[in-house]
Specification:
The complex is a heterodimer of chains A (about 190) and B (about 280).
Chain A: H1 3-13, H2 17-38, H3 42-58, H4 70-89, H5 103-106, H6 111-120, H7 122-129, H8 133-144, H9 149-156, H10 160-185
Chain B: H1 9-20, H2 26-38, H3 41-56, H4 69-98, E1 104-106, H5 117-122, H6 124-141, H7 145-153, H8 158-165, H9 168-174, E2 178-182, E3 184-185, E4 195-199, E5 204-209, E6 217-224, E7 229-236, E8 242-246, H10 249-253, E9 261-267, E10 272-276
Antiparallel strand pairs in B: 1-8, 2-4, 3-10, 4-5, 5-8, 6-7, 6-9, 9-10
Helix pairs in contact in B: 1-2, 1-3, 6-7
The chains are: A mainly alpha (about 190), B alpha+beta (about 280).
Chain lengths: ~190, ~280
């Protein structure tokens, strides 16, 4: 068990500011990038980061190092928050395929920022486009739009087990491609 | 519970990725967690490592970095949340401290604080609803919980239970600052169970044990990192359910957080530690 991480979360549970600083310094970028992947604007992503760290404080004393490493816990809290946001907003682009530009939805950014935003998921977009259609659709709906697996199963008229397998395999393939590309770059 | 309710290793590993990204719905997540806890230690370690690897992988994330000013905004937002929570709990914590009564409320011996009775009577309607919710919550969480429920209703401990819990219990139990930690058997043989609820904000401890051996004498003990121990409360089990609350553990015993001690139940008859929170 990682005692240091557990002690850190206990200090955070007690509201110790230096502990929260330490947590942000370790995971702030990860939380921001994860938020930026899903949310269409920097402003929304920054707001999400703040809310995630409040949730991390609120749930700090429930962190169990036997169950997960701290980075996993942080990612889980982040993803749950992002999915909650997507569902709350009810702004899931139900019919908007992933290939469309997410940044244009908010209308808050300058043309230069939009251009950068277009590229922010470019690598991911290319890799997803290479996946079989079912895996592509499931990842788009579950991972990026926040639908539950059951909802995806109904929407795609496919058994739940098939959806779970497609999602799992699709995510595994994306990682595999990512690892292969990194190795190719040396 | 049938075997199909638990996932095997391969399925667990497959679902691990979905779990870490929050993609399992409620039923699947519960089944996954149950299966994880039922899996051999080696498989658990494998899953923990895999999920950490997945969570750390930033290759598929946008390469934008956060603005440096975001750090300060995050710290301010969290500080604000901490302050709001502290302000919310402050009046509740004051109720305990303002009374010139003993800090330990022990229903195993039937002693009820008379001075606080009028507060608890006034809150009894609210408490009735929260009591039902609380008991169902424990029924979900603990084995033998039906015995707990029976102990409350069949053995006519309901009045004691309500008076013991008091109007602050609902806030205590639902506060995000409460950490629950189960005791584990220290000897590998003892089958009793107990749980400690520690409120990091108010420094209160709530001890609940549905199945300790009756007619035996115990001590709730805290052990610090330097092996020094402090006994918080001695109790004798006379029924199938034991509970007590201890206030001001920081001021009285120097215990500032759950992380600072290991909790033990020491059997004074057999001179052994029977339950411990040590991992």
């Amino acid at each position: 068990m990682n005692q240091q991480d557990w002690n850190l979360m206990q200090r955070i549970a007690a509201g110790e500011e230096s502990a929260i600083e330490e947590l942000y310094d370790r995971f702030g970028a990860l939380v921001f990038k994860s938020s930026r992947q899903i949310l269409p604007s920097r402003a929304e992503a920054e707001d999400a980061v703040q809310e995630v760290f409040v949730r991390l404080w609120q749930s700090a004393d429930r962190y169990d190092p036997r169950r997960a490493k701290l980075v996993t816990w942080v990612m889980l809290i982040t993803r749950r928050h992002l999915i909650d946001r997507l569902r709350r907003k009810a702004a899931r682009p139900n019919t908007t395929p992933f290939e469309q530009d997410w940044a244009g939805i908010s209308g808050e950014e300058t043309p230069e920022q939009s251009s950068i935003a277009e590229d922010r998921n470019a690598v991911l977009r290319e890799r997803i486009a290479e996946l079989p259609k079912l895996q592509r659709d499931v990842i788009e709906k579950a991972y990026f739009q926040g639908f539950t697996l059951r909802e995806v199963s109904e929407q795609l008229n496919a058994p739940l087990g098939t959806i779970k397998s497609a999602l799992s395999r699709g995510l595994a393939k994306l990682r595999e491609k990512s690892i292969n590309d990194e190795q190719a770059l040396g | 519970m049938t075997a199909s309710n638990y996932m095997e290793r391969d399925e667990l590993l497959k679902m691990a990725a979905l779990d870490v990204f929050g993609l399992l719905d409620e039923y699947e997540a519960e089944r996954y967690n149950r299966s994880f806890h039922n899996a051999p230690a080696g498989v658990q370690d494998e899953i923990v490592a895999l999920q950490a690897e997945l969570a750390s992988d930033t290759s598929l994330l946008p390469q934008e970095d956060p603005d440096p000013s975001l750090r300060e905004r995050v710290l301010k937002r969290v500080a604000q949340a901490v302050e709001e929570e502290t302000m919310r709990l402050a009046p509740i914590a004051t109720i305990g401290r303002s009374r010139k009564s003993v800090d330990v409320i022990d229903t195993t011996h039937g002693r009820i604080l008379i001075r606080a009775a009028r507060f608890w009577r006034a809150a009894s309607f609210v408490l009735a609803a929260s009591l039902v919710a609380t008991l169902f919550m424990y029924a979900e969480a603990y084995k033998g919980a039906s015995e707990l429920i029976n102990a409350v209703y069949v053995q006519q401990n309901e009045k004691q239970f309500k008076e013991f819990l008091g109007p602050t219990f609902n806030d205590f139990q639902t506060s995000p600052k409460v950490v629950d930690i189960p005791f584990n058997t220290a000897t590998g043989k003892y089958e009793g169970t107990a749980t400690l609820h520690f409120n990091n904000a108010t420094k209160q401890v709530l001890f609940m044990a549905p199945k300790l051996i009756t007619n035996s004498q115990y001590v709730l003990r805290a052990k610090f990192d330097d092996e020094k121990t402090v006994d918080l409360h001695a109790f004798t089990v006379t029924g199938s359910y034991t509970n007590f609350r201890i206030d001001d553990v920081q001021d009285k015993f120097g215990i500032s957080s759950l992380a600072s001690v290991t909790w033990e139940i020491f059997d004074t008859v057999s001179n052994t530690v029977i339950l411990t929170t040590a991992i």
